[in-house]
Fold each of these.
Amino acid sequence: MAAHTIRNLKELDDSAVQFGMSPSMEARFAREELGTEQSGLSYQRLAPSFRQPFGHRHKQQEEVYVVLSGSGRIKLDDEIVELREWDTVRIPPATTRQLEAGPEGLEYLAFGAPNVGSGDAEVVEGWWSD
């Protein structure tokens, strides 16, 4: 059996549908499909001017976000930063984060390590309010 795994991210289940966030958000998580042992990966797309409905932070997992297209803003604890295509953001585990798309939407990849399973994230409802 091959030691590698190949999957098309856009063919994975869109978790945003099952949580009622579609079509404003698309979220495809590849950790299980790829069988990653040390990391996680997701593809996410936000509709124009859409803000994710909650913030989150981790106990152990560091994340790196890579903006593939569009623009937007990210809130990291108390700081709000503008993002554009190909910007890359490293986020330490305990930093609360949330994204908001610009007028053309926002598409990004999120990488996380170490792979500690789904119980590592803490959702923070109503965290970013104007």
Amino acid sequence: MSSAPLFSDRSHAGEQLAQSIFRALSELQATGISAPPSVYALPRGGIPVATPVARLLNCPLDILVAKKITRPQNPELAIGAVTADGHVLWSEPKQSRKQQESLREEALRQAQAKALDQLSQLASSCPQFKPEGTIAILIDDGIATGMTIAVAAQALRSYHPAQVWICAPVAPEGLIPWLQQWGDRVIVLDTPHQFMSVSRFYAEFPQVEMATAIADLQQHNLKLLSQQEIPEIKI
């Protein structure tokens, strides 16, 4: 693999991803399936990637917040993931020792609290419509372990969309078969064999600030509201 980054920034990656998703939706419609699309970003990094997708598809941009569950001694290693509404996915089997189980449950509570806090800051900028019957397109800026996007897909499926698609600019090659059990379709632009981290595939990969995330959501959804009515029904 070339050492050159695949994408200049998240917006550039989102524009390329939008084209791939648009083609896949067109192919699906040709088979007679005409469910409308809806786009969900994993905040905060997924929002600037998802924005060009929602713009091209002319559909609402919502969020689905999921956080890694980690051990205090290794905050980078995910032992699971949880959504703000309480869907949980573990990467390790349940511990039998009471002390270990207590630590695991505390890690879960902390991760869900972070998810709820982030949701509280972003929710007012989202249309919060029901994805039932739509092609629900779940987007992040990259997939490393897959835990957060998998639990997000699990949560999204509970709202009965017609299909759930897992989409990202980049993910490890070996992770794709595992992701396919969580989504009806997986769209990843590049699947390098040597992965290491998502950031290495971007020339610019700054942290997405909360103010920027809110502005992106508001700008897209307010523009869409001026063109068509989006039912503001909380799920």
Amino acid sequence: MYVIIIDDIFWKFIKFSFVGLSGLVIDFGLTYLCKEIFKIQKFISNAIGFTVAAANNYILNRIWTFHSKNPEITTEFLSFFIISLIGLGINTLIIWILNNKLHVNFYISKGVATIVVVLWNFFANLLVTFAK
């Protein structure tokens, strides 16, 4: 029984991670475009990239990772997005500490923040948004 549950969670995490890779490309791509090309402030650029990636990730995770059939799509999306916004706060805080206080390269800081936030997002969505 527990092995089946752990195996199911493991494979959901693997799928969630693959979805996250697509979100990572969107996130980093938009962040770079906004920050470097359009010269938008780095934390606003980070928020834009993160937010668009979160919307993409909701759609893919609903369909592929969690196979959600919840008819309350608006409620489910809001839950996912609130968790993502909390993740954005965690993400921004980590980047601010690493980049502004410890002078770690911005993109390395963003990479570290991304790893932490992936874990937050997966478990929060598993237990809240897509809980059966």
Amino acid sequence: MSEDCIFCRIARGEIPSATVYEDETVIAFDDLSPQAPVHTLVIPKMHHADLADNVSDAELAAIFAVVPKIAEAKGIAQSGYRVIVNNGEDARQTVKHLHVHVMGGAPMTHGMIDFADD
């Protein structure tokens, strides 16, 4: 784990979070700045900056196996939800710790891509 990474600190329990799910490999918690009525983040407890940072197949499987559990727990499994991974600078990844956004709770726009003008 990284000493100064905010998500590592959440995983270690140093920063409180609205934890939705936790096991030995991952932790899921509600986003502090939600972009949808339901906006939960799923992170590996081990620090990985992004998908290219030596993430094991087992960790990836654990992360994505949790997604349907989060959707069920949050009441969006039947209505639908979006799963997003922002990977790198162009994708506007703001926290350099691999994380998956599980978002739902209201109808979303059709388009999935919105490019910045800069």
